[in-house]
Inverse folding.
């Protein structure tokens, strides 16, 4: 089937995830071979995902781990996983 | 993982950190209720989501409708931005701080329902089914929201992504 650009855009997310069935994927790939605009849209969307997955993009606040460990130590102390502290222990 | 999940709901660093700590403590205390048939990361994410939603409800007040009732926006332009001079992003572009800053801002500006799905799927790298399970949605809804989130980000970031590097086909494909 011959797809126009708007149809290709609707499938971009699933195309990137590799979750389209073979026939639709092949139709899209045929379109992409001849359409610079759709290729550019696909590449730019992919690259946003690469950038999202880059550890430097969404960093934890400075000192996060230390504060988390301090809180865990304070709240949980010596209790075992799945075991609540009794009120008189807190 | 827990922090970013809570942050995607409350959108406030201090509240997200406090909520993430609460979620980790809750998870630790309820480890015995973890069922091996679920993935640990999905179970932990669900606890983080619940903590985030609890805080959001508290912040918004009981009078507001619950966030679980949010529905897809029927209106809205979910077409990507055409880039006539776009080519594959070069590695040095990934080094640019302003690009990462622009992405963080664009994700923060996404409508809540899209940001939550995007965070779990593309940031936490849960798959579609795990994302659906964690958010209590069906996988079809997750796919629609994910698609819209990605397209909205592409449109928002298009001005930052123009470059003249060479095309490298097949550079990146996510696992389904």
């Amino acid at each position: 089937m011959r797809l126009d650009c708007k149809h290709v855009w609707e499938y971009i997310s699933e195309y990137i995830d590799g979750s389209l069935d073979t026939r639709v994927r092949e139709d899209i790939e045929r379109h992409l071979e001849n359409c610079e605009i759709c290729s550019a849209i696909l590449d730019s969307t992919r690259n946003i995902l690469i950038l999202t997955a880059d550890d430097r993009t969404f960093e934890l606040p400075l000192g996060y781990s230390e504060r988390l460990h301090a809180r865990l130590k304070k709240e949980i102390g010596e209790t075992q996983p799945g075991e609540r502290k009794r009120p008189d222990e807190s | 993982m827990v922090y970013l999940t809570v942050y995607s709901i409350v959108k406030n660093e201090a509240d997200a950190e406090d909520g993430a700590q609460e979620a980790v403590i809750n998870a630790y205390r309820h480890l015995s209720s973890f069922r091996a048939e679920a993935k640990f990361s999905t179970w932990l994410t669900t606890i983080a989501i619940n903590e985030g939603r609890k805080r959001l409800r508290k912040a918004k007040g009981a009078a507001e409708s619950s966030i679980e009732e949010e529905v897809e926006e029927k209106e809205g332009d979910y077409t990507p931005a055409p880039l006539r001079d776009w080519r594959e992003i070069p590695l040095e572009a990934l080094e640019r701080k302003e690009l990462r800053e622009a992405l963080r801002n664009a994700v923060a500006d996404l409508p809540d329902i899209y940001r939550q799905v995007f965070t779990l799927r593309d940031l936490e790298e849960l798959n579609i089914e795990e994302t659906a399970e964690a958010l209590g949605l069906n996988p079809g809804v997750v796919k629609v929201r994910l698609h819209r989130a990605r397209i909205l980000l592409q449109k928002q970031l298009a001005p930052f992504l123009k470059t003249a590097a060479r095309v490298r086909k097949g550079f990146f494909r996510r696992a389904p």
User: Anything to note?
Assistant: The CA atoms of residues 72 and 140 of chain B lie 12 Å apart. Residues 40-60 of chain B form the longest helix (21 residues). Chain B touches chain A through 51 residues (CB under 8 Å).
